[in-house]
Amino acid sequence: MRRLLCLLAGVGLTGMVVLAGCHKDAGSGNIKIGVITSLTGSQSAFGQAHKAGYQIALEEINAKGGINGKPVELSIYDDQSKPDQAVQGVSKLVDQNRVKLILGSYSSESTRAIVPVVTQKQIPLIMPTSVADNVVETGSQWVFRICAGSGSYASATLDFLKNNGNPKTLAIVYENTNFGQSNAKSMTAAAQTAGINLVDSEAYQASSPDYKALLQRVKSKNPDAIYFASYLLDAGTLMRQSEQVNLNPKYYTSAGTGFAAAEFPSETKGAGKYAEYTLSVSQWLPSAKWSGSKEFDEKYTKLTGGHPAYHAMEAYAALLVAAEALKKTGPDAAPTAIRDAIHNIDIPETPFGPIKFDARGQNAHPLLVTQIQGGQYKVVWPLEAAQAKPIIPAPEWSKR
């Protein structure tokens, strides 16, 4: 895989790299697609997963002749995990690199920041991973989201809970950003509808070294379940410190993201043993029954040395959609034609499932609920997709 891809740096734009299939004419007459993601900064683990997913899709597309006989090239802008950098990335990709389509960013915070910019510049934006629902609620006709959003996360989690013990009380712990706020809002409304009593809701500033006081407040409310909306670094810290304060809900649940990252169960990059029994919403796993999932897992593992979580698959699917739209319009089409082609996309089968967008630009993507058992993510809900039975309640820390 590595031999099939060229990574060229230093093309004259700060924060830019280019990925191109290794054709003889690479860099000459290629079709350019812009990408904004987080190759550095606090969300770099997810951005690097994005990059690997894009590389796999790029190799497949170019191996089949590219788009209408022309190879595809990705201009990737590193937003450094910062919304203001993501905004700068749009300007550089559109005004200097002359792309007619952008994929990105990773986080909801950065993606929400670029929605007004792509709308003003009239450039289609395909979002692979941003789950805050407000990224598709602006009324813009230029945005499309591959993944399911925060409202679906809350619904899937509560569907699992209602059918697996039916807890009566819930606490929410969330990062105080667009991502966290959207997930907290969605879960608050969904819990109320489901008749679950919300006993505590705690916002925190990301990347803090100490959450023990917050976790003590949650412990004092004795919730049956906790719902976390956290990125990877904080997910690990929160779980390790939950053990330190002896916080023992029956269910540790989460809005995916850090709790669903491939690194989360690892001792070196995640929570290690403290990740055991946590439940998470997941958009995809290598064991998913969609055709091509196993093959993607094999390619990703060969490329990176580790198995993928859903973030890489979402990037892969986003590039497939972009390529399909450009095949329909031709690469020299106006952005409005490319936008309309994306609106009309209807792909019944991909390794990420069927892809079709509604009037808001939202793909109707089904969700899974997983639990970490023995250091591995196991699908536990819905029943027709389950690999294992959920372990409920989570064992108390003193009994692990």
What topology emerges from the helices and strands here?
Layout: E1 5-9, E2 16-21, E3 31-37, H1 44-63, E4 72-78, H2 83-96, E5 102-104, H3 108-121, E6 125-127, E7 143-145, H4 150-162, E8 169-175, H5 178-194, E9 197-204, H6 212-221, E10 225-229, H7 232-244, E11 251-254, E12 279-282, H8 293-304, H9 310-329, H10 335-343, E13 346-347, E14 355-356, E15 368-373, E16 376-381
Parallel strand pairs: 3-4, 3-5, 5-6, 6-7, 8-9, 8-10, 10-11
Antiparallel strand pairs: 1-2, 2-4, 12-15, 13-14, 15-16
Helix pairs in contact: 1-9, 2-3, 4-5, 9-10
Q: What's a concise summary of this model?
A:
By secondary structure, the protein is of the alpha/beta class.
Could you explain how this protein is built, in words?
The protein is an alpha/beta fold. It has 2 domains: 2-148 and 288-356, Rossmann fold, CATH 3.40.50; 151-282 and 368-399, Rossmann fold. The chain contains 10 helices and 16 strands. It has helices at 44-63, 83-96, 108-121, 150-162, 178-194, 212-221, 232-244, 293-304, 310-329, 335-343, and strands at residues 5-9, 16-21, 31-37, 72-78, 102-104, 125-127, 143-145, 169-175, 197-204, 225-229, 251-254, 279-282, 346-347, 355-356, 368-373, 376-381. A 7-stranded mixed beta sheet has the order 1-2-4-3-5-6-7, sandwiched between helices. Strands 9-8-10-11 form a 4-stranded parallel beta sheet, sandwiched between helices. Helix 2 (83-96) packs parallel to helix 3, helix 4 packs parallel to helix 5 (178-194) and helix 9 packs across helix 10. The radius of gyration is 21 Å and the shape is globular.
